[in-house]
Amino acid sequence: MSAPRLLAGPDPSRGSERRAEHVARLGPLPKGGHALVELLVHTGLTGRGGAGFPVGLKWRAVAASSHGSAVVIANGAEGEPHSRKDRLLMTSRPHLILDGAMLAAASVHAKQVVLYIGEDHRAALRSMSEALAERTDHERRLMRIVPAPARYVAGDSSATVHLVDAGIATPTTTPPSPRDRGVGGAATLVQNVETLAHVALIARTGTATGTVLITVAGSVNAPGVLEVNAGTPLGDAVQLAGGASEPARAVLLGGYFGQWVPAADAWTLPIDPQALHARGLSLGCGVIGLLPTSRCPVCEVAGIMRYLASESSAQCGPCFFGLRALADACTRIADRGTDPGDLQRLQRWSAEVYGRGACKHPDGAVMFLLSAMKTFGDDFAQHPAHLRRTA
Q1: What is d(CA 157, CA 70) in angstroms, rounded to the nearest whole number?
Q2: Ordered structural domains, the chain, with CATH
Q3: Which residues pair with 220 in a beta bridge?
Q4: Radius of gyration, CA atoms only, the chain
Q5: Alpha-carbon distances, residue 79 vs 118, 255, 257 (angstroms)
Q6: What is the percent of the chain where pLDDT is above 90?
Q7: Gap between the Cα atoms of 355 and 362, Å rounded
Q8: Pairing of strands 70-76, 110-118
Q9: What is the pairing mode between strands 143-148 and 110-118?
Q10: Among 255, 266, 252, 265, residue whose Cα is nearest residue 295
Q11: Of 250, 319, 258, 343, nearest to 290 (Cα)?
């Protein structure tokens, strides 16, 4: 039997799969519980929201701390600018996500389920709302939708907890982690919606799904979301997206908290969270972004750093002042040309910012910048003045 796929069934472009069609295709909702948790441990499923933590181990920990009062948050914030996979899944396969959320609730003994959906993802919000209305009375009482603000940091697990508790999607200092003390002080399972959809299939088949959702972006002929078999070479995925629209200089793997890889080294990389981790890389949120040779990498990096600085929660100096200083130095190099002093400041300030923030946002931005300076070292060292700004 072939491995189950998230996007099997009706064409996702048709919109939401209704519950009757969903049940006819996949069968009724299985039971959650200890056996499912152990099955997830056995399959080795990892989270698809960015961190890549083993799902079964995470569910074990929440179940052990639950005491019947745990909370499940289905995270569909998807604040990464180029990512589209989660909203496609919420729009086209909402019942697969709701099934996963219900299985999670049963397995960790949760008293409520929060469907945390980006407020700008209107089609996804509509589809999930309509799907929730089709569920049983018990399920509707257990689950509720909470819109997530359109901010990069809103998808952080601690930010989801903070919004549900206090109405503000601000990441908070850890420890404790949400799985130890989350919403209302209860053990809280925060799980990406793609991860929950995988769980819904694993519970039905008893086997790993073996697929990965990715968003191919940048200089490709047909950018968008693909479901590929785990281990598919990155170059093959680019071909499935219509191929590169022009020669690629590098690939950004994992979105804005990801890493740059020279194009020559990227094509053979396996699209598999565990295999990439073994190579010191991460699939992160599943974005594969191609940077063409026609674009200046220093200018691209400076623009992304300005964006990440603007997304600061402004709750600590390393994030609010540190990221702004790093972004300003990158912009000076992009606009005025290389300055040895700015190159030294980028290295020194990166070391001073990393690990000192109130949340992980500054760490992610610093890792992105250091990856760029390694991959595009010659460009940073010999960048000409572009003088694109007058201010």
Answers
A1: 15
A2: 12-205 (3.40.50.11540), 211-292 (3.10.20.600), 297-381 (1.20.1440.230)
A3: 244
A4: 21
A5: 7, 11, 12
A6: 83
A7: 8
A8: parallel
A9: parallel
A10: 252
A11: 250
Among 343, 316, 314, which Cα is nearest to 329's?
343
For 336-379, the pLDDT digits (tens) are 999 999 999 999 999 999 988 878 889 999 999 999 999 999 99
Q: Edge to edge, what strands does the sheet with 143-148 contain?
A: 143-148, 110-118, 70-76, 188-192
For the purposes of burial, counting CB atoms within 10 Å of the CB of 240, is it exposed (0-12), middle (13-18) or buried (19 or more)? Answer: middle
User: Residue 163 carries which side chain, given as an amino acid letter?
Assistant: L
Instruction: Please tell me the pTM assigned to this model.
Output: 0.93
pLDDT band at 296 (very low <50, low <70, confident <90, very high): very high
Q: What is the pLDDT of residues 45-98, one digit of tens each?
A: 998 887 778 999 999 999 999 999 999 999 999 999 999 999 999 999 999 999
**pLDDT reported for residue 1:** 44
Q: Is the per-residue pLDDT at 390 higher than 70?
A: no
Q: What is the 3-state secondary structure (H, E, C) of the chain?
A: CCCCCCCCCCCHHHCCCCHHHHHHHHCCCCCCCHHHHHHHHHHCCECCCCCCCEHHHHHHHHHHHHCCCEEEEEEECCCCCCCCHHHHHHHHCHHHHHHHHHHHHHHHCEEEEEEEEECCCHHHHHHHHHHHHCCCHHHHHHEEEEEECCCHHHHCHHHHHHHHHHCCCCCCCCCCCCCCCCHHHCCEEEEEHHHHHHHHHHHHHCCCCCEEEEEEEECECCCEEEEEECCEEHHHHHHHCCCECCCEEEEEECHHHCEEEEHHHHCCCEECHHHHHHCCCCCCCCEEEEEECCCCHHHHHHHHHHHHHHCCCCCCHHHHHHHHHHHHHHHHHHHHCCCHHHHHHHHHHHHHHCCCCCCCHHHHHHHHHHHHHHHCHHHHHCCCCCCCCCC
